[in-house]
Amino acid sequence: MSEHSIIDICVEPIELYKLLKIANMVGGGGEAKTMISEGNVLVNNKVEVQKRKKIRQGDIIEYNGTTIKVAYNPTKKSAEFISTVVSATNKSKHKKRAKSKASVSSSKSVTDPSIERSKRKSSSD
Question: pTM of the prediction?
Answer without folding.
Answer: 0.58
